[in-house]
Amino acid sequence: MLRTRSLICRRALVRTYATPASPHALVFLEHREGVIAPGSLSALTAAEQLGGQVSALVVGSSEQVPAVVEKAKKLKGVNSVLHSTSPQYAEPVPEVLSPLFEELLKGNSGFTHVVSATSSSAKSLLPRVSARLDAPTISDITSLEHDASSGSTTFTRPIYAGNAISTVRAPGSIPIKFFTVRGTAFAPAPATAEGAEEKPVDPVEVKDPVTVHLKTTIAKSDRPELGVASRVVSGGRALKNAETFQKMLYPLADALGAAVGASRAAVDAGYADNSLQVGQTGKVVAPELYIAIGISGAIQHLAGMKDSKMIVAINKDPDAPIFQVADVGLVADLYEAVPELTEKLKK
């Protein structure tokens, strides 16, 4: 009797793993009068450190965009420049811009990160877009590291007025990671000879926007811009009034070719415009030389300038906290020391 042996062929089980998408960052480039903002150039440098593709986004009116696109195409690390023109984008507000971002990022857009400078505009725009897409925004980062194997990105950012550094990891399960960049922590992206490709993007018109831009007021000065100046001279409440503030600080700043800054106390007292405020609620600067005149060194002010390469403090109080972070300290009456210093610099 013959027995037949039945053979059962079973399909081999093969376990497959999803491969994390290669980083592709969308960097929002802010600009004014044809000049790309320095903070946006630093955001490009941060995006390049992710190790993948970098696309820049330029928006504005038809008169503004072409010149900015030509500059953006030659920036280091940029692979493509997306641009969208509309009268609504001439002076964009977050409520008008966010639908454009949502359109670019919806579905399988390919973007893994959305990046911008830590500007007042971006601090309103990015959280709005990320909330609509059910994703978090990590603000004011000072370093980043991307893990290609897991798709996660680890950031550091200052907290508690810069007295502590928080390390935040955005896991690969977050499909699009939004973050803003502290400009002083990354070098501005330089221009190169090569040109990236450009891609037009249709604008998303917003009917009856709830917020409308009325006007922009810019304090004009022949001195360097505070946020990017290599030298800064700042004054505090000890300067008594606006007239004394100008009389003491402006000649010294001009002799050094420096920008002028102020503490919050000086701004609140009306000595200087709030555009000159340095600190936690003002501008964050990191110049080669920072001279603090009549500034006690409150923690809120230190948060905005303690990364300066050389800090010089002039204060008649030897116990002023500013001397704890100063590289050079002069305990003297500023009304005597500053004019003497200015005269010596002019010679």
How would you describe this protein?
Helices cover 23% and strands 25% of the residues. It is α/β, with parallel strands linked by helices and 347 residues long. It has two domains: 24-200, HUPs (Rossmann fold), CATH 3.40.50.620; 231-346, Rossmann fold (3-Layer(aba) Sandwich), CATH 3.40.50.1220. Helix 3 (94-105) packs across helix 4 (120-132) and helix 5 (242-256) runs parallel beside helix 8. Residues 1-17 have low confidence and may be disordered.
Defining traits:
8 helices; 2 domains; Rossmann fold; globular; flavin adenine dinucleotide binding; FAD; five-stranded parallel β-sheet; seven-stranded parallel β-sheet; disordered N terminus; alpha/beta; 347 residues; Rossmann-like_a/b/a_fold; transport; mitochondrion
The ordered H/E elements are: EEEHEHEHEHEEEEEEEHEHEHEEH
Give me the CATH fold name of the largest domain: Rossmann fold
* CATH architecture designation of the largest domain: 3-Layer(aba) Sandwich
The CATH class of the largest domain, by name, is Alpha Beta
CATH-assigned homologous superfamily of the largest domain = HUPs
Class by SSE composition: alpha/beta
